[in-house]
Amino acid sequence: MSENGGREEEEEKMEEQNDEKKMYKVLMWGYLPGVLSHKSPLTSPVDVQSPETGSDVQSWKDVCGGGCGFAMAISGSGKLITWGSADDQGQSYLTSGKHGETPEPFPLPTEDRIVKAAAGWAHCVSITEKNDVYTWGWKECVPSSKVVANFATGGSFEGDAFRKESPVLTDQESPRSQGSKSIGSSVAHQDNKKPEETAKRRRIATAKQELESPPPADESLSAPPCIVELDPGVKITSVAAGGRHTLALSDVGQVWGWGYGGEGQLGLGSRIKIVASPHLIPCLDTSSHGLDRNLGNPQGSITTGSQTHKALGSYIKRIACGGRHSTVITDVGVLLTFGWGLYGQCGLGNTNDVLRPTCVSSLLNTRIEAVAGGLWHSVCLCDHGRVYTFGGNQFGQLGLGTGTDHAETSPRLVDAPILENKNAKVVSCGARHSAIMTEDSKIYSWGWNKYGQLGLSDTVDRNDPCEVPIDDCTPKNVACGWWHTLLLAENRL
């Protein structure tokens, strides 16, 4: 459910050249319903068999997590590999390529190498070496029309930008009607109307239903892989998939989004049910944030619109999606969040939905380098390797030593003794569990463990980070699916 961050392009190229001389393997632990429905969950790391033969047998490039019942990784030859649900396991059966237990290449309509990919609840998105973006799965997550006008510069949506069958008008609120509340260096465009208790219960029930029940296995609900049409010259370098929405980051630091936006997770300033075309999200657009005002920043260093814009950053360098919320990081390490806020997963000190990208002001003095989102929580890493978490903590997924139902609406430092003198560099979130990799190639996990997704040889939830035992290999990347975890590791000679 997350984009794990990356390196500069030149560094990536050099590392890729070195990687070609190394042998990698993928390990998995946790639960895939179609694979393990008649077996016990994998509570400890287990090698995933390579699907390919030939020169790169047993070689992998990266892990991409997975969705509701399926797993996804990239082979050494650049093939997208999926495995997971059987034909009675809902939408994921269609999304994962109907491969069942055996990892196999997903049938994409291209022979180009896949370099990055992400999976939502029941949809996937991938990037080729030529920067083409393909997406498939649940229809509402797959664009059905061409790119719309540049929303950030005042353009309006054109054509079939919104699905006609969606009840857009009944669930949409005008940006002008949204209250604006100063938060640090930005203006929070939020739904300030406190929800009724019945509405809150309905939203909680919906979230739990999404988590526990795969969507129906209906071919008519699933769209085959198609290329995402963007403006000419747009070069997408990373993607992130949420429960029912998608973000894509371009090489010039612009963020595009499409899919479901009912809680503001597409950053449009209103509750759009379905956005059927990629739109440009105005993450750092001063006019859309009202940054021409004197915001009275408590640090006293940001006073005018231009100063505020400069302090927030010039472009976006990282993106991540939670179940119904989104997070982005600017080039100067500022964290912006938007979307569903019922459990405080936007980190703004309240439980309001956030309809536009908004600065997490409590972290303004901390340079954020990586971020990931779960169904109800968020985890971010600062440049010193420290871990901050916020949002729902029903199963200890915040790693704060408590397992209560009390939400943390502002970022809290994870100061577990086991992480002392450890610098985290990769973070990923499952539905209700979290995992990090440190600079010394150690893996730590915490949270929900009903299906062994923490890799700790049992099914006991953890509210503190615990080290995952990894033998005979060196971890290189970790990626969480909804109920499982994948690890890319280098074989030790």
TrEMBL record:
Residues 169-189 have a biased composition (Polar residues). The keyword Lipid metabolism does not apply. RCC repeats lie at residues 78-130, 253-332, 333-384, 385-440, 441-491. Keywords: Repeat. Residues 165-224 are annotated as: Disordered. Residues 190-199 have a biased composition (Basic and acidic residues). It holds the Pfam family RCC1_2. Coiled coil: none annotated. Residues 224-486 form the RCC1-like domain. This is RCC1-like domain-containing protein. It comes from Datura stramonium.
